[in-house]
Amino acid sequence: MGHRGKFISFEGPDGAGKTSVLTTIQELLAPALGERLIVTREPGGDPIAEQIRSVILDRKNQAMDVRTEALLYAASRRQHVVSTILPALENGQLVLCDRFVDSSIAYQGAGRKIGEQSIAEINHFATQGLLPAKTIYFDIPVSVGLKRIAQHRDTKKIDRLDVETVDFHERVHAGYDRLINQNPDRYVVIDASQELDVVVAEALTAIQAVAPEYFE
Fold first, then answer.
1. What is the mean pLDDT of each run of 10 residues along the chain (216 residues)?
2. What is the pLDDT of residue 166?
3. CA-CA distance, 130 to 128, in Å (whole number)?
4. Cα 51–3–7 angle (5° rounding)?
5. Span 6-214 CATH architecture
6. Which residues form the Thymidylate kinase-like domain (predicted)?
7. How far apart are CA 96 and CA 214, in angstroms?
8. What distance in Å separates the CA atoms of residue 69 and residue 53, rounded to the nearest whole number?
9. Is residue 14 marked as binding?
10. Is 6 annotated as a binding residue?
11. Residue 15 assigned as binding residue
């Protein structure tokens, strides 16, 4: 599929700080790019997809079956792709997305032990094969990420995925490592244990390398 725009996803385990990095990057790029920049997130990024997000992350839904959860993520993603990402790409915009298919493969496929191939298949159906031009991965040891979460999260904001075991987060991290090995050309790996400004600078360099036409 040829698109006029560029699609870059941001991935990382819990506590890597990718959302903070993306917020900072949005503040830095928005003045110059204006409406050419779209910053979005998953699950969510569209009113219907956001409603599905609230169901997935609601702590009252502890009884949710793992395959139900995986299908809800894929359903949310489908709506997001059709209503937000594809129109932006067709419009020539630069799309920066906080999480995409790789998150489902790592969290549901590896973390929940459903099977990475199964999750890849339902998401291929959901996205019709759409993948980012580049995926910026914020790498951090599980112990460091979880320590950051414990220090920074307001207990009222802790969602269903934050209360998972260390083993779960280790499986997620290993799932990401496999994805990086399988897709070396798509991934840019950044050491997220560095200072925020260093991580932001490296991420900006990666964005400019894959989408130079927005920075001429």
1. 86 92 97 97 95 94 94 97 98 98 97 96 98 98 86 63 77 97 98 96 98 94
2. 84
3. 6
4. 50
5. 3-Layer(aba) Sandwich (3.40)
6. 10-202
7. 13
8. 10
9. yes
10. no
11. yes
